[in-house]
Write a structure and sequence with these properties.
Length: about 550
Amino acid sequence: MSAKPARSTGARYLAPIALSAWATLLIGLLTLPLLAPGIPALRDMMVLDHPALSPGALGWGDLPARGAPQDGVLALIGQVLPASWAMRGFVVGASIAGAWGSFLLARHVGAGPWGSAAALTIGLANPAVIERLLQGQWSLVMAAWLLPLIAWAGLSERPRAQWVAMWGASLSPTGGLFALLMGFFTARRQRWATALVGLVLCAPWWVPGLLAGADTTSSTRAVAAFAPRTEAFAGTPGTLLGLGGIWNAAAVPGSREAGWALAGVVLFALLCTAWRACPRPLLWLGGLGLALACAAWALPSVLGMAVGNFPGGGLLRDAHKFTLLAVPAYVALAGALRPGRAAGALALAAVQLIDAPLSLSALRPLPPEALPVPPTTMEAVQKEAAGREVLVVGSYSESLIPVEGRPLVNPWWKALGAVEPGNLTVDGVEVDPPNPRWVAAQGAWRAGDLPELERLGVGLVVDGGTGEVLAATQAPAPDTSRGLWLLGAWALVVPVAVLLLRPRAKAARKPRPTASARSGRQPPARKRPSPAARRRYPGGGAGGRR
């Protein structure tokens, strides 16, 4: 008679240990390559120890504020600490919070051990996260990990926890937008306060974009260049339903082209069997994200019109990232599955990670000597510039440079307040034209016209291949106060909101009535158990109930 409770007790203690071990394994798989010493650099990721605190880093440069507030935060940290290690801390912290959030959201819909394990796997290591990591978009991956935590905090009426999670998710413009949407539509308390917090968290990019107006619009050709990409045997819609399909084929694990994308399609079909148990806001937001991603494939002209005519429309051009809005719904659906189906969902999610360790090894940081110019030389030029803007000429003056066979963001744009070219070509299609001020400055340098360079705001001219200062003008350092004010608002809005939120009043407990409401007579006294009954049922009262 005692064996069955013993097995139940053992399983009760074993399940949390197994889930913790599985979450630790997934977090290690995703983040361990980044923890090696060196410079985190891969495609869109270039994190120096001491980046420049420039107008561009704060979102007020010539180009759209696609790196705000992330670049400004790292530049501020880099004044006193190595920013690259702060970035590593952000990523690891977000992965731990994401694991916890996926677990809590799964438990919110009644998940058992198998459902929790499936939810953890989908929330942490889905194909969209893997592909975005390989694209170098670490802050967007942080947002993807934190979305389930934002959803759980809103659904469970914990606005403080929700705002803190939104704070961490808002380092990138897309992450801030997703955090705002998820926070607003899942909040059951303080919904409008959540909307206000989300708007302030997004201010470092939408305020410059709004004031810049048409200058921040993106080319409609970018929609075709950044359109979701089909993966083997799944088709474009099936690929997107499985959360794959990033535009850059080089940022995709090889297994996706070997047919493993089909596992994502089967997983989606399995998750749909639990749709009735999924909170409706998550279903609606997940459907919106998948619809926007599919629109780039099915209705490119309509999406192109929005991208080309509205300030900030460039957020829509890389439509695959909107599949990340479906991650909380997938997590909740996995948690709501029956144990047998949940085990199947876990297997389908895990089998898509078959070559993830090999693919994610590309995240290993570069040694400093691998860069064309050592970081120490860049820091010396940064010190000499003293906040003035720099024109980089000669070799290594392009937007992207090849290093060890991988395309990287030019480190000069992070090390200095530089006049950037801003042009981008994808598969031979120019999706972003060159920055007009950069074109004018390059022409003035070739003509030897230093007064024109000064008029354009160029303080130094530097050789990109050697770091040698070739010329200097009397151009003053640009004003960074607007960007710093917005960054300060971003940094303070959540702590202030948390402090101002009044504690929720506890419902007063009604006193136990001492008389019958109808007759006014005293209710019958509860009988005390006899000594024999107490000996027979030592853990309960009369009748032995526990």
